[in-house]
Amino acid sequence: MPKVLISDKLSPAAVQIFKDRGIETDVKVGLAPDELKAIVGQYDGLAIRSNTKVTADILAAATNLKVVGRAGIGVDNVDVPAATARGIVVMNTPFGNSVTTAEHAIAMMFALARDIPQANASTHAGKWEKSKFMGVELTGKTLGIIGCGNIGAIVADRALGLKMKVVGYDPFLSAERARDLSIEKVDLDTLFARADFITLHTPLTEATRNVIDAKAIAKMKKGVRIINCARGGLVVEEDLKVALESGQVGGAALDVFKVEPAKENGLFGMDKVVCTPHLGASTSEAQENVALQVAEQMADYLLTGAVTNALNMPSVSAEDAPKLRPYMKLAGQLGSFAGQLTEHALKAVKIEFEGHVATLNTKPLTAVILEGLLKPMVEAVNMVNAPVLARERDIDISESRNERDGDYHTLVRVTVVTEARTRSVAGTLFGGDKPRVVSIKDIPIEAELGEHMLFVTNQDKPGFIGALGTLLGSHGINIATFHLGRSESGGDAILLTQVDQPISDKVLEEVRKLPQVVQAKALSF
Ligand SMILES: NC(=O)c1ccc[n+]([C@@H]2O[C@H](COP(=O)([O-])OP(=O)(O)OC[C@H]3O[C@@H](n4cnc5c(N)ncnc54)[C@H](O)[C@@H]3O)[C@@H](O)[C@H]2O)c1
Ligand SMILES: O=C(O)[C@H](O)COP(=O)(O)O
Questions:
Q1: Is the model's pLDDT at 378 over the cut of 90?
Q2: What molecular function does GO assign, one term (predicted)?
Q3: Do 113 and 103 meet the contact criterion of CB atoms below 8 Å apart?
Q4: Quick check: 323 and 357 in contact, CB under 8 A?
């Protein structure tokens, strides 16, 4: 039975889902890194929010971990490359808290426009400072949205409802999507020049880090109000402080900080600053959504292999997972076959899907093929990190799909280009779920791959098969299956035989010395 650790405060709905799905669940919130490191090796899944830092060090101790589930959006607290390298799937819940966070940004905008937190504190203090708090109307003002993804788009929608003008900067926002959202797409300097309010909704990346610094602030309208409900590192807090003091920035509403938990910060106590402690996602609705989603996704992955919302692996639906299972085996075998035959640097891999398989989600099959292919060359490769490793090695990967049946109802062909040659191997499923190799180097053959195999290319001449059988017999090697193929009579021939024990280097050398043999390889699957 898989075991999951919940290490941040999640709605109890998550525990219930895990329990209902037969997954043992421990809840241990607030563990110090060393405490987490000491126990993480016991678990198959780790469910977190933003508090748990899933570092490379923690992952190194997570010897059984298969999935990290982030109940929320940002995964900047997870070392995703380190997880990928260890074959650990990292998934999030990209939509569960978007509305709630967008509403928080709008609430922050109102708070800034009308000094609500300051007026609230003053009124509670019995001061009745009616003339002190003079706000601004939002109607007719321009809101600049930096990052127009899920949350940015909802903020735009709400702002348009408030009769604001909305300009947006997002290099990945298409003109068509901007039109659909009624956002005027502008460049960053134009946004700075036109916006009365600026709200940030990008992830924290190298491109977005410090996007609001002194230089950027100098390009903004005097008195601009800035809202950050995305990530702390987007704003240079020291520069913001200077701009608030000078009046260049008229107010700032911050839900996120460079260092969290933010117990001390240079902006705290400033008159024009409104702060909340990373509450963007904190509504009962959003927390219920993300907890349910993450638990379902993690349970699906651990129990069925279905992958949803993974950041480092292609998605596989629960419906597709059983259909893909026999193909995963076939794909792994074909990749492994090609990888074990490869003796030179890989330049390109061409993967063709024909017939029924082309109607399925083939991305996971490509990942498994690459895993099999790279295994003889790269230590610790798995289907999660194989595409990354292949890219790092400049291997050109192409995939084609043709839903029409060819000679077979379903076929996967892997063609490998190395510095020395181009070689292909193809396979199908017999009876819907039994992998068979049906062509090697374009020579037809029909073979089931077993644990220990001998693959030989030879000249099609009489006497070879008898000689090989005698040689294997003289070493006490029992032949389980024997498959032959040839391009034409007397031409190139191939032989693939399954034997009951591994073939030693000594036996292989003797096979290679048989007069007709061009190449002989012991393969294992
Ligand atoms: N305060 C909170 O509690 C809270 C809650 C939820 C999400 N968030 C944060 O909000 C952010 C946005 O979440 P989302 O769900 O909208 O993400 P999203 O991926 O849907 O949208 C992010 C957008 O940013 C854009 N982007 C990327 N690089 C950019 C750049 N250099 N300049 C401008 N735009 C760029 C992307 O194209 C995308 O459209 C994330 O960082 C997330 O972690 C915070
Ligand atoms: O990225 C997110 O989803 C938000 O920052 C929410 O973080 P939290 O789950 O720690 O509140």
A1: no
A2: NAD binding
A3: no
A4: no
Q: How far is the CA of 72 from the centre of ligand 2 (A)?
A: 5
Distances (CA, A) of 508 to 451, 458, 503: 17, 14, 7
Q: Are 341 and 521 in contact (CB under 8 A)?
A: yes
Task: Give residue-wise pLDDT tens across range 311-363.
Answer: 988 889 888 888 998 999 999 999 999 999 988 889 999 999 999 999 999 99
| Residue 278 falls in the annotated catalytic set | yes
Q: How far is CA 106 from the centre of its chain?
A: 30
Model confidence over 58-92: pLDDT tens digits? 999 999 999 999 999 999 999 998 998 888 999 99
Structural tokens at position 341: 């035959």
Asked about 343 being catalytic, the answer comes back as: no
Q: List domains and CATH numbers for the chain.
A: 3-93+285-304 (3.40.50.720), 98-275 (3.40.50.720), 313-446 (3.30.1330.90), 450-525 (3.30.70.260)
Is the per-residue pLDDT at 392 higher than 80?
Answer: yes
Nearest atom, ligand 1, residue 202 CA: 24
CA of 247 to the centre of ligand 1 (A): 28
Quickly state the pLDDT bin for 48 (edges 50, 70, 90).
Answer: very high
Pocket flag, ligand 2, residue 202 (CB < 6 Å): no
User: Tens digit of pLDDT for each residue in 402-442?
Assistant: 999 888 999 999 999 998 899 999 999 999 899 999 999 99
| Ligand 2 atom having least distance to the Cα of 50 | 10
Q: Indicate if 488 belongs to the active site.
A: no
> What are the φ/ψ torsions at residue 47 (nearest 5 degrees)?
-105, 125
Q: Give the position, in ligand 1's atom list, of the atom nearest the Cα of 255.
A: 1
- Asked if the peptide bond before residue 387 counts as cis, ω within 30 degrees of 0, the response is no
DSSP at 360: S
Alpha carbon nearest to ligand 2 atom 6, residue: 281
Looking up tokens 């026999």 gives 326
One of 24, 184, 260, 510 is an active-site residue; which one? 260
Complex ipTM more than 0.90, yes or no? yes
